[in-house]
Design a protein that fits this description.
The protein is an alpha+beta fold and 192 residues long. Strand 1 and strand 2 form a beta hairpin. The longest helix is centred in the N-terminal third of the chain and has 16 residues. The chain is 43% helix and 19% strand. Helix 3 packs across helix 5.
């Protein structure tokens, strides 16, 4: 167990690769950039598990972390969301028992980029879900309002906000930082 000056306490499970990631992260780095730390830890998980993720199993929580406070909240959110994206990447056509198209590499890579962008900007998504139209969606929920950013298999990004009572706004966006900032600001304003 390591205690950091910012009050964060990390508890690590002993397995090869995990401590390598921990050792490669200086204490100052954790305080300055928890996302970078989470990426290194996530990489250690991948090497340790050495299997493709299975839908329905949350191996990060079961095998690597002792309790929910093992990583700072931003790093934990990043790890959880990226793990979900990686699990969903292995869906097959018809995953919804109809004829839904599975997410492809374009959708999964774009989704990872967007999750990283939002978390770096302190706008943490609630969940990542598959899209029946092919791709992945990033979901933000606040009360009765929700925001949804769909990463299509063809690389398009469609943003939606709704109050679930008929007030729906939809717009296209792209991966440029300027457009993503505008989209994030529209989400934040809508959730007010």
């Amino acid at each position: 167990m390591d205690n950091y000056a910012n009050g964060t306490t990390l508890t690590f499970v002993k397995f090869p690769g995990f401590y390598d990631a921990q050792k490669s992260c200086q204490r100052e780095e954790l305080s300055k950039n928890v996302i970078s730390f989470a990426k290194k830890v996530h990489s250690a998980f991948d090497k340790r598990l050495n299997t493709k993720p299975s839908v329905g199993e949350d191996k990060i929580d079961e095998r690597a972390l002792r309790h929910k406070d093992a990583l700072p909240p931003k790093a934990m959110s990043y790890s959880r969301l990226v793990w979900t994206i990686e699990k969903l990447a292995y869906l097959e056509k018809g995953w919804d028992s109809y004829d839904a198209i599975a997410p492809n590499l374009t959708a999964t890579n774009n989704c990872k980029y967007l999750v990283d962008f939002f978390i770096q900007n302190d706008f943490i998504p609630n969940e990542v879900v598959p899209s029946v139209e092919g791709g992945l969606g990033i979901l933000f929920i606040s009360g009765q309002k929700y925001g949804y950013l769909e990463c299509d298999n063809d690389g398009e990004l469609i943003a939606t906000v709704s109050d679930r009572a008929g007030d729906v706004h939809v717009w296209e966006t792209n991966l440029s930082k300027g457009q993503l900032k505008i989209t994030m600001d529209r989400f934040r304003k809508y959730f007010g």
